[in-house]
């Protein structure tokens, strides 16, 4: 690992001063330290944001504000998340392990980089690490790689579970930099690889995620996250689906379908949502939605199974949703555990 | 490796929040001073910022209970309690945890040498073979109990899944956790109802 | 009893939660004078692990936990091509990096004499005989091409990244399916009877191809070595090994030292599974670097390096032809296998080992071929040959049972081999039919509809499957030392190992009974070449062969003590009949006090007959229930019953743990484990636990183990065979057969991942 200097600012003013070229922010470290050990990340300066006041999880009107430093564990266990955003809690708890979730943070999870074995092996050509170097996964091993959102330059899968739920929930990502703050929709936060797979998010150099705002809506309350993986726990998704439905009077008024493990970004399957909205819930429409979710998939030699797996996991998620009506919209006291 | 240097007053304490902190060591690498409360004792050490919490414990404090099974956060053998929460100590830098409280497997043993109930349960249920993953397993099991995740076999299995055991003592680990949490029912029983609903 | 290296923090082992069961009948054919009145025999008791307190407190010191003053840290640099040669190396940046003590490269100062391979005619100690850093040629991805030594691990790791290496790269052969890599056939063929005639006599035939992937042992403890040279040139090495004797041989040969000047210590080993059973080049490099630098050096493989540096289980391609009469009796078996090896080693993964002996079939042809690939050398992994071989054989049997409409258990009973088909000898002890019967009962085998796909619980398809287990015991010899001490305790020492196998515990039990002492008065010392020589801790052989040596040593020292006592007019035991003497701590203390000795000791040997007129094998049967999610293709083994005939069970607690571990190895083999190799570049893709899955706790359901506790009267007077490997054999097939029964889908290519379950 390359030598670096270390700083731990206590407020944003200090932070902008500490940051600079070749600097990296660190919070829990579960992704950055890993990538530094692999030689993929080589910051000269590591800026520890752990002392910034960004850890809160608070209800503000009809939105849940989650600070970038909220740990995956705390977010998953938060009563409002458990009660009103089950897909988010389930996505969080399906990721990594308890001891990683205690370190990992919301912001870090959104900035998590792909698990592509060629990206993580600096001896291998990788367009994401070094644009123009080529992609070894295309003719190498790509059993776990993406079938959606790919380009001829990159097929690396986005690994996050949490981000899939955030995309489905219409979360808004607050970011700030030396020149001011802005809000980016979660669905637009991650960039498809195109011809610049090295550009993964909308963050400009030096910008930092402050947190996300998650609207508490009926489709989020009536939701679930289903993850298929090669072992029962502590594994990245082969395919996952976050789904939520707002069903009133026998008709789906709002639908959310997002996919993980199969796309280059946390993937909002809007075609599937369009199939669902306006229909009565049932096996037939769920099947059509599942087919729509897989539309546009471009499999390679060894990952064609993922196209079928998308259909399976979306169908499973839709049919797993409990029939019970979602809980009422949160009032001031509704954060109490049930 | 030398024992942790604990010489307060001899070195100027690094001030957090200031850039460019640390002083060059004999080799020219930058070192920083880190103070942590480890198993109830204050340890001050000078470490390269690249030193992980795991390596700080093993190489600087001299606690080799936490093990390096993968150094990539994928096996759990390095699990310690950081401010009473379990973490993979291999994926975080020591310098990030100044002033914090760390408990390792060595810190579970009572002052009279008595085993922690979880340690005893692991012995009683043969919950290990080679023993290499065991310190991490036990730290996870202790944390799991405090978290309220000992509600039943499937919940325990899931919440112990961050600790790999190649000898595959898993059924015995499950039995040990059940036995130990039954012995401390007061702290484990109450929260289980809510946690069961959380686990999907 | 304590593992000697680590004082028990409690002072005493915890009490056994279960009462000590009565000894099995016929337990002690050579009864020793018993200890304190009422002391139960230790053999057969579920004694808690002697090294348990050390392991649960962090006090157990594994190789990488050991420190020395002035200890330097070494890091390996490995090739990033699979085939070719190094054309240039720039070491300047690395050598001038902070803290760096040395950078060793091919052609550099490290020199070693050649050491023979385990797989050569010389049967040497090395897993890879090619001397490390000997030249610029690269034979596989991840070959050691440099060693960087620095004051700290951070410094060594950082400097290693600064090395610049240029290669001239050639296209590697990476696939076992590459026919151009096949070596000439025939040299490992086994032909018995007349296959064609057997085929002609058959009513039914199964002809199927099976494949198993490459695997890596992935013991939780990465291989580590610490080497230290004394001022007068003696070498002491701490190493994570299953064979301290082999490490000593390798080092003595490499550095041209008399064996007695090399000491190898391995008190605690964090699992091996074969990866630490031979000596790997990094061990030699560590010692060479320490010698060159004149200071102790420690080297640990990283987890990714464990995928290139300490062996692997090769992939297999197997074709089975089973021919049988309508009643299920086998008339012919043909088993063709191809397995890969490396450029330097001729490693044959003997898949046919089970085929030749498991069933009574007169006409068997087994052909093994190897494909020479530009890949790291394979080696024996837990249940070598038998793990992949039994998957294919026992799957084929299941296919035959289905063809015949015959119960899979009944098919196996009808083909039971009453004598060893290979040698014609009687079995030293075989209770396989009991295993089938007990297993079927405990599992509830008959409660299922035999038709595939007949049980459904919502989205889950439920199935049952079974398979036979077996393990061959290769005869071996051992020595051990027993010492009685004037404080009424005993110390047993032997250069064997506890790699998680319970050796510290079971040898203590054997010694306690032979000495007539309570278990907690016996200390076992292992893992040091200073102790009497034992075989490698491989092949499930430690209890079987080290156990009797310990017993002989204990009997010898006990008899010495008693002989002195009864012959001495000053002893209260003078002229007492031996049978009347009650041995125990007080007697030992009193007699040693009386003769003025702090201790007396004796060496014991186990030397099996070379021409034993018996075939010595263990047997067993696995029964598994799986739930296959019809929606997602995921498979879960909900419960599994294993029944094992392993001779006498010295400690049912530790033996059960080993078998649970073995069964889990099989579940893992069936459902998830596989090494992914890049077909073009020849490297392991994602060489770590996120890329190479082994089971988590959540993957494992209810596992039940039952023993047919029948001492083997011919292997030794202890009657114990081994528990280390048989749990693996057949386990994967039982799971795969259950998947067939659940789904009606026969999958012949492991592992059974969701993509395969969902495929048409």
Described by its quaternary structure, the protein is heterotrimer
The number of domains of chain C is 3
One letter per element, helices H and strands E, the order of chain B comes to: EEEHEEEHHHHHH
**Corresponding CATH superfamily of the largest domain in chain C:** Aldehyde oxidase/xanthine dehydrogenase, molybdopterin binding domain
List low-pLDDT spans of chain B: 1-20, 185-200
Q: What structural class do you assign from the helix and strand content of chain B?
A: alpha+beta
From the alpha-carbon coordinates, what is the Rg of chain C to the nearest angstrom?
Answer: 27 Å
Largest sheet composition of chain C: 7 strands, mixed
Low-confidence regions of chain C: 1-38
General shape of chain C: globular
Envelope shape of chain B:
globular
How large, in whole angstroms, is the Cα Rg of chain B? 18 Å
Q: What would the average pLDDT of chain B be, to the nearest integer?
A: 83
Organism (chain C): Streptodolium elevatio
Biased composition (Pro residues) (chain C): 10-32
Domain Aldehyde oxidase/xanthine dehydrogenase a/b hammerhead (chain C): 57-171
Protein name (chain C): Xanthine dehydrogenase family protein molybdopterin-binding subunit
At a glance:
Chain A: It comes from Streptodolium elevatio. The complex is a heterotrimer of chains A (338), B (200) and C (760). Chain A has helices at 12-18, 32-38, 72-77, 79-84, 86-93, 98-101, 106-110, 136-139, 162-168, 186-189, 218-221, 270-276, 283-293, 305-320, and strands at residues 5-7, 23-26, 45-48, 57-60, 63-67, 172-177, 180-185, 208-215, 223-228, 239-248, 251-260, 267-268.
Keywords summarizing the entry:
heterotrimer, A: 338 residues, alpha+beta, Uridine Diphospho-n-acetylenolpyruvylglucosamine Reductase, domain 2, Enolase-like, domain 1, five-stranded antiparallel beta sheet, four-stranded antiparallel beta sheet, 14 helices, 28% helix, disordered C terminus, B: 200 residues, 7 helices, 6 strands, 32% helix, globular, disordered N terminus
Structure notes:
The complex is a heterotrimer of chains A (338), B (200) and C (760). Chain A is of the alpha+beta class and 338 residues long. Chain A contains 14 helices and 12 strands. The longest helix of chain A is centred in the C-terminal third of the chain and has 16 residues, at 305-320. Chain A starts with a strand and ends in an 18-residue tail after the last helix. In chain B, 32% of the residues lie in helices and 14% in strands. Chain B contains 7 helices and 6 strands; from the N terminus they run βββαβββαααααα. Chain B has helices spanning 53-61, 117-124, 134-147, 153-159, 170-183, 185-188, 192-198; strands at 23-24, 30-38, 41-47, 79-82, 85-88, 101-103. In chain B, strands 1, 2, 3, 4, 5 and 6 form a 6-stranded mixed β-sheet that branches. In chain B, helix 2 (117-124) crosses helix 5. Residues 1-20 and 185-200 of chain B have low confidence and may be disordered. By secondary structure, chain C is an alpha+beta fold. Chain C folds into 3 domains: 2-64 and 476-606, Aldehyde Oxidoreductase, domain 4; 67-171 and 220-271 and 276-309, Aldehyde Oxidoreductase, domain 3; 377-474 and 613-758, 2-Layer Sandwich (Aldehyde Oxidoreductase, domain 4), CATH 3.30.365. Helix content of chain C is 23%, strand content 22%. Chain C is globular and about 75 Å long. Mean pLDDT of chain C is 94; it is low at 1-38. The A-C interface holds A 1-3, 39, 115, 117-118, 120-121, 123-124, 136, 139-141, 143, 226, 228-236, 238, 305, 308-309, 312-313, 315-316 and C 80, 98, 154, 157-158, 161, 459, 631-634, 636, 671-672, 676-681, 683, 685-686, 690-691, 693, 695-699, 753-755, 758-759.
